[in-house]
Amino acid sequence: MRFEPGRLIVHRNVRRGRIGWVRAARVVSDDDRGLVLWVARNSPVASEVTEAGLGMRAVPFAEWVSSSYRLAAGRWNGPPVLKFLPAGASHSVWWFRDAHDRFAAWYVNLEEPGVRWDDGALAGVDMVDQDLDVVVRPDLGWEWKDEDEFVERLAFPAHYWVADPDAVRAEGKRVIALAEAGEFPFDGTWCDFAPPAEWTTPDELPPGWDRPPVR
């Protein structure tokens, strides 16, 4: 399954069969290397929150797992992001930008490989975010991110969606080695990407964005 450049799809994170977050994105390219997506400034999004409106990071995980949830619509809060989902890989790489839309850093999102779906009117990719991440600076220095949250959630194996933390860390180390060597995609590729001028940002998530996950 390949997506045409320019197509509006939804990129979704799934947590134990529930939608954790959704982001509207445009397809930049889709080939043997993988899928490249563009999340524009102010793109419509939705995120899982408690009935009190708190996101997962705003409460202890012990409280989160005993809460009831709803999906709250919102907007992408920050500069635009380019996302590369390598074919079959257990990570994606995001190009973060600063407030002036200049490249700032790579963000390695460790995740279960995405599963694609296409209903005709709408298509998307569902993945499982494994929470532990790596930030790679332009000078190719790096650091782990969200280790505390990762360790906290591992203490709740009946509720957490990460079954093999060693495999997650091993994938992170594998990508870190690529970054330290300055190999693709940490070689300057797409750091100056600019979307076509005709790409518009939708006012809201497209109908069907909350269809049952395929994972």
Provide a descriptive summary of the structure in words.
The structure is a single chain. This protein has 3 helices and 10 strands, in the order E-E-E-E-H-E-E-E-E-E-E-H-H. The chain is mainly β. The two termini are 16 Å apart. Strand 9 and strand 10 (142-145) form a beta hairpin. The protein has helices spanning 61-64, 147-154, 165-180, and strands at residues 8-15, 18-31, 34-39, 44-50, 69-75, 81-86, 91-97, 103-118, 123-136, 142-145. Helix content is 13%, strand content 41%. The radius of gyration is 17 Å and the shape is globular. It has a single domain (8-180), classed as FomD barrel-like fold. Strands 1-2-3-6-7-8-9 form a 7-stranded mixed barrel.
The radius of gyration over CA amounts to 17 Å
Query: How helical, in percent, are the residues?
Result: 10-25%
Which sequence of SSEs, written as H and E, runs from N to C? EEEEHEEEEEEHH
Structural class: mainly beta
Name of the level-1 CATH class: Mainly Beta
Tell me the CATH architecture: Beta Barrel
* Total of DSSP H or I helical runs spanning 4+ residues: 3
Largest sheet: 7 strands, mixed, barrel
Could you tell me the CATH topology label.
Answer: FomD barrel-like fold
Count the domains: 1
Q: Whole-number average pLDDT?
A: 97
Q: How many strands appear in the DSSP assignment?
A: 10
Strand order within the widest sheet? 1-2-3-6-7-8-9
Low-pLDDT ranges: none
